[in-house]
Amino acid sequence: MREEMITKFQEIFDEAPQYKSFAPGRVNLIGEHTDYTGGYVFPLALDIGTYALGRKRRDRKFRFYSMNEPETGIIEVDKNWKYREKDDWANYPKGVVHILKSNGYTMDEGLDILFYGNIPRGAGLSSSASIELATGVLLDEMYGFQIERTKLVTYCREAENTYVGVNCGIMDQFIIGMAEKNRGLLLNTKDLTFQQVPLPLKDYSILIINSMIRRSLWDSGYNRCIEDAKRGEKILKDQGISTLTELTPRDRPLVEKHIKDPGIYGRIKHIITENHRTLEGVNLLKNGDIQGFGELMLQSHESLKKDFQVSIPQLDTLVEDSMNLGALGARMTGAGFGGCIVTIVPKVGVEKFKRAIIKNYEKTYGLTPEIYLVNSSDGAKCEKINREVNSQ
Fold first, then answer.
1. DSSP tag of 183
2. Catalytic annotation, residues
3. How do residues 249-266 score in pLDDT, each as one tens digit?
4. What is the pLDDT of residue 387?
């Protein structure tokens, strides 16, 4: 793909690129809908993601082009960095540039940037954070900013929160910026302390199954979920509880006493039990107990379905079929309302498993699910392209 991108860059921008970056996608193994209340998450960076090529310009214009969205053509920005709905996907890299400029990072020369991603959009594998970090590390390297990585991660999150307007937590940007290959990352999203945890997969593979129900964080109830969680958190803080992470499932009577709204109660119940499951799951992995971890994944899905209420029948079917076909564990991953499930299955029989999943899903919903066998990846990185390609 690199050569194809270089060729396309020259075709679109008439000169050769100078730098290349890559930012992975991510899948969250456990710890869902906890990051915006300072909870624990355990994501993994993937070997699919967003690639970017960049070249400095002689003026201050920024031009963006996506090989995935050729119909939008070149999106050009000079002085007006306001969010524009018609710019669609380009608002994510625009947002990163805007946030860095707003924080005092000087860019006297503009950039031409070409993107290509192999993360399915709307699948819940964090294509938005991936393009943000691919942009962030490219800008950091090309302008010599030397931004401390956790700070760059927070800038990219700020771009999504304040520029694009999606109230996501820090998890996606953090794992994409900080990941290590063959390790999951246990992150305390309150204080950003983290551990890199080896994954004892051995005879097992991670599969991601796309329901083909494309979700949108704008169109879904994602922001409503966050609002409910924040309201419940405030109620408990008014009772002297500093953070939800200090509560355990044993504190259920306390939560029931103070939170009367059933929807808010269910979401707070999920967050408390999910924090507990995440810590327990990481301890199991440290002891090599991948089976026990799989059982917690299934419990997580049931909680997301019944308590947090962000699953849909298609995701539930994929989880149920996966377990019936021998998976160690399965759960929806991402915001919900569509997207994907993640499942851990024995390496022996993977192809048979995939065929059965596809057959059952097609029969039930008339859709063919996409199934990705994924590997882990390091976090976002950028480097200079060693050889120049002759300009056209």
1. E
2. 172
3. 999 999 999 999 999 999
4. 61
Contacts for 161 with CB less than 8 Å, ≥ 6 apart: 167, 168
47 and 148 co-located in one domain = yes
Q: d(Cα 85, Cα 91) in Å, to the nearest integer?
A: 8
Q: What pLDDT is attached to residue 253?
A: 93
The CATH number assigned to the domain holding 282 equals 3.30.70.890
Per-residue confidence (pLDDT) for residue 392, from 0 to 100: 33
Burial of 109 (0-12, 13-18, 19+ CB in 10 A): middle
The reply to whether 144 falls in a domain is yes
pLDDT at site 217: 53
Reading the block at residue 246, the tokens are 């200090």
Question: Tell me, what's the pLDDT at 226?
Answer: 84
Are the beta carbons of 327 and 350 closer than 8 angstroms? no
- Please identify which residue in the block is written with the tokens 């107990």: 289
391 inside domain? no
Q: How far apart are CA 134 and CA 121, in angstroms?
A: 16
Widest distance between CA atoms in the chain: 70
Compute the average pLDDT of residues 379-386.
Answer: 95
Which residues neighbour 26 within 8 Å (Cβ) at sequence distance 6 or greater? Answer: 43, 44, 45, 46, 125, 126, 129, 130, 171, 172, 175, 176, 179
- Phi, psi (deg, nearest 5) at residue 22: -140, 135
The strand pair at 204-210 and 329-333 is best described as unpaired
User: What pLDDT shows up at residue 167?
Assistant: 79
Q: Which domain holds residue 245?
A: 199-374
**Domain membership flag for residue 172:** yes
CATH number of 17's domain = 3.30.230.10
State whether 189 and 221 are in the same domain: no
CA distances from 333 to 132, 176, 252, 353 (A): 20, 16, 25, 19
**Co-location of 354 and 317 in the same domain:** yes
Predicted structure pTM score: 0.90
Beta carbons within 10 angstroms of residue 334's beta carbon: 27
Which of the four pLDDT bands, split at 50, 70 and 90, describes residue 234? very high
Query: In this structure, is residue 26 part of a structural domain?
Result: yes
**Domain total for the chain?**
2
pLDDT of 220 over the 60 cut: no
